[in-house]
């Protein structure tokens, strides 16, 4: 082999320019930083254990909080999470009175249209009947010596209302689609309205009188999941209300939907009910996560996040001290690298990169352990585990950032090693 | 190859530029007491020379190696490596010059114990800007040159002392340096392996490499074609 000399250096460049592809690149840096990482498994475990624990604790904390929030939402907010209401939009009329008028109209077949949508369990039309001077009494005669009691509220509803509001009939029955279609003069009473009207049982076929017209009382509703105001109301079929009191349009549509279908149905309902002008309808639907759940999550997170951060700091100190030890052990290697042409910056970069890779590895393992922990405990408790994917990814990033910070000090020290001193020792 | 020119020494333009040129180099370490490790040393090493620097310990050999290897700077005087006045260079320029112009062989080998023989030989090329595609072929070629092509995948710990030093020599020549600096290269070797390494140096020299050997061993020093004796920081040709 003929050994050729390196090209002579000419100032001011000192040495010939190296093409970018042949320089010491980031890929070279990573290659050098990762070449030794697995060579001492015991050392590696010691180095990353703090990071693994810290990231795992952080992810488990946030994961448990999210799971608990989801659980609370399921237990306490089930009704709210499944209630969807469609109302016509309103606009200010502009006058001094400040009153508003509806700008949209719900179609009378809204129930059929809604029930065709995926995620809708049942739907019903509902309208509050505004009859300012109406009297509602249980007897036909009016006692002029007594001040007239405030009448109970009057509502018109379609036959599906009981299902849509999750109501329970204490006695008797709810009216059906037949009553509605025939405009039968029948009503169902809310339990408090029934109390005020003095009606306790329906097996004796009582009637009430609305503006003097008799309506047969079919049943009494004593409980609803939503729309508690119905317990104070007299409810008649919409067909009856259209015939007797001139109900022109439905007031709103109450639907019971599957958990989680809210955001999607918010989009679909206006298009289904008013395809020509979807903006004329407003939808109140549950958001993805309940406010109650978020509040609970904030409480739980506060304490445990602080604990996790402390563990993470310990993990960072672990990386720093082990990397520092590694710098001392590899003094000879650092001296050699400097002698063969590595700059102080390249040496520092190598140790920072090593530390980032270790942190990244710790974050990766920690995230996996944290997520598995949440899943395992949730399964044991029969909960539905909830971990936002961003939390897991964030955990990995936390590990990398920790490595970056922890590597600073050892890298600084490595860069300051004088090759002359370093090469004096042996390897 | 054309001779490199130098900007700041017009009298050298006509003559071939020496590989190494020291002029009145003094290196003193601030005390107390202040120590002058080298005192007004003048030395010229033309390309293709085979030089040994000999002296007892404390005579300034290590200081000399550090200066020649661009690991240290003279307190007074000029050092030109391949015609480049090194005192004006930045640290990064000196690192680049080390990578491209110099090869090092140490008494303690300084091999990376967790990397294969081949990886060890490829290390300097990482910093020397050797074309990426050429790095592994050149490392294999260098290992073949020192007779270790059957040990490429080994870890250094499995090699004998002589083999380790031959890996170090392969590492030093793989970048095709202008000058090979060897610091007590046989200090850790027995008689037989010392002979092998010295024979290898002789072959490299015959191939045209400039060699500077620093040693306290008179027998080793005599194998070189020129000898410089350091005594109390002063150099004289033997």
From TrEMBL, chain A:
One of its GO terms (molecular function) is transmembrane transporter activity. It is a multi-pass membrane protein. Pfam families: FtsX (PF02687), MacB_PCD (PF12704). Residues 306-419 form the ABC3 transporter permease C-terminal domain. It is found in: Cell membrane. Keywords: Cell membrane, Membrane, Transmembrane, Transmembrane helix. The keyword Transmembrane helix applies. The chain crosses the membrane at residues 44-65, 303-328, 355-378, 390-409. It comes from the Bacteria. Its main location: membrane. Residues 45-249 form the MacB-like periplasmic core domain. GO terms for cellular component: plasma membrane. The keyword Cell membrane applies. PANTHER family: ABC TRANSPORTER PERMEASE YTRF, MEMBRANE COMPONENT OF TRANSPORTER-RELATED. Belongs to the ABC-4 integral membrane protein family. This is Putative ABC transport system permease protein. It comes from Klenkia marina.
From TrEMBL, chain B:
One of its GO terms (cellular component) is plasma membrane. InterPro entries: AAA+_ATPase, ABC_transporter-like_ATP-bd, ABC_transporter-like_CS, ABC_transpr_LolD-like, MacB-like_ATP-bd, P-loop_NTPase. Residues 20-238 form the ABC transporter domain. GO terms for molecular function: ATP binding; ATP hydrolysis activity; transmembrane transporter activity. It comes from Klenkia marina. Keywords: ATP-binding, Nucleotide-binding, Transport. This is Putative ABC transport system ATP-binding protein. It holds the Pfam family ABC_tran. It comes from the Bacteria.
């Amino acid at each position: 082999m003929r050994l050729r000399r390196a090209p002579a250096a000419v100032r001011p460049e000192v040495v010939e320019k190296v093409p970018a592809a042949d320089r010491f690149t980031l890929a070279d840096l990573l290659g050098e930083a990762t070449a030794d990482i697995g060579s001492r498994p015991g050392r590696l475990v010691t180095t990353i254990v703090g990071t693994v624990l810290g990231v795992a604790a952080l992810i488990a904390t946030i994961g448990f909080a999210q799971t608990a929030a989801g659980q609370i939402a399921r237990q306490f907010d089930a009704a709210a999470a499944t209630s969807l209401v469609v109302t016509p939009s309103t606009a200010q009329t502009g006058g001094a009175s400040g009153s508003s008028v509806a700008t949209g109209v719900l179609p009378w077949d809204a129930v059929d249209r809604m029930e065709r949508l995926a995620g809708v369990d049942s739907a019903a039309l509902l309208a509050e009947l505004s009859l300012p001077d109406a009297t509602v009494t249980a007897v036909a005669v009016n006692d002029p010596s007594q001040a007239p009691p405030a009448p109970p509220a009057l509502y018109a509803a379609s036959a599906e209302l009981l299902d849509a509001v999750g109501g329970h009939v204490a006695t008797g029955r709810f009216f059906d689609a037949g009553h509605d279609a025939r405009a039968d003069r029948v009503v169902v009473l809310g339990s408090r309205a029934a109390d005020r009207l003095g009606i306790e049982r329906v097996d004796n076929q009582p009637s009430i009188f609305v503006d003097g017209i008799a309506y047969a009382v079919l049943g009494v509703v004593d409980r609803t999941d939503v729309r508690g105001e119905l317990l104070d109301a007299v409810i008649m079929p919409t067909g009856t209300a259209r015939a007797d009191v001139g109900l022109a349009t439905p007031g709103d549509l109450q639907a019971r939907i599957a958990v989680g279908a809210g955001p999607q149905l918010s989009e679909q309902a206006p298009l289904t009910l008013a395809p020509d002008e979807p903006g004329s309808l407003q939808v109140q639907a549950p958001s993805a996560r309940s406010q109650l759940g978020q509040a609970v999550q904030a409480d739980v997170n506060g304490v445990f996040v602080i604990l996790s951060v402390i563990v993470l700091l310990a993990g960072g100190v672990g990386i720093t001290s082990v990397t520092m030890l590694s710098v001392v052990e590899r003094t000879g290697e650092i001296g050699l690298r400097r002698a063969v042409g590595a700059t102080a910056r390249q040496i520092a970069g190598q140790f920072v990169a090593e530390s980032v890779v270790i942190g990244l590895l710790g974050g990766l393992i920690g995230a996996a352990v944290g997520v598995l922990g949440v899943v395992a405990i949730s399964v044991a408790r029969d909960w539905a585990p909830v971990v936002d994917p961003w939390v897991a990814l964030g955990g990995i990033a936390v590990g990398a950032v920790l490595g970056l910070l922890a590597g600073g000090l050892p890298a600084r020290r490595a860069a300051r090693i004088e090759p002359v001193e370093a090469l004096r020792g042996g390897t | 190859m054309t001779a490199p020119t130098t900007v700041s020494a017009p009298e050298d333009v006509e003559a071939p530029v020496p590989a190494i040129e020291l002029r009145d180099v003094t290196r003193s370490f601030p005390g107390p007491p202040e120590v002058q490790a080298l005192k007004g040393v003048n030395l010229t090493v033309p390309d293709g020379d085979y030089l040994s620097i000999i002296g007892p310990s404390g005579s300034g050999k290590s200081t000399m190696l550090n200066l020649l290897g661009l690991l240290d700077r003279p307190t007074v005087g000029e050092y030109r490596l391949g015609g480049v006045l090194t005192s004006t260079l930045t640290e990064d320029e000196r690192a680049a010059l080390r990578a491209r112009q110099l090869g090092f062989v140490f008494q303690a080998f300084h091999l990376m114990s967790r990397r294969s023989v081949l990886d060890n030989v490829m290390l300097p090329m990482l910093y020397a800007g050797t074309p990426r595609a050429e790095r592994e072929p050149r490392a294999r070629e260098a290992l073949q040159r020192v007779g270790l092509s059957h040990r490429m995948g080994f870890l250094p710990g499995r090699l004998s002392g002589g083999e380790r030093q031959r890996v170090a020599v392969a590492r030093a020549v793989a970048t095709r340096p202008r000058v090979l600096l060897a610091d007590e290269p046989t200090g850790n070797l027995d008689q037989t392996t010392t002979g092998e390494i010295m024979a290898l140096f002789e072959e490299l020299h015959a191939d045209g490499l400039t060699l500077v050997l620093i040693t306290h061993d008179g027998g080793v020093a005599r194998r070189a074609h020129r000898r410089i004796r350091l005594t109390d920081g002063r150099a004289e040709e033997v």
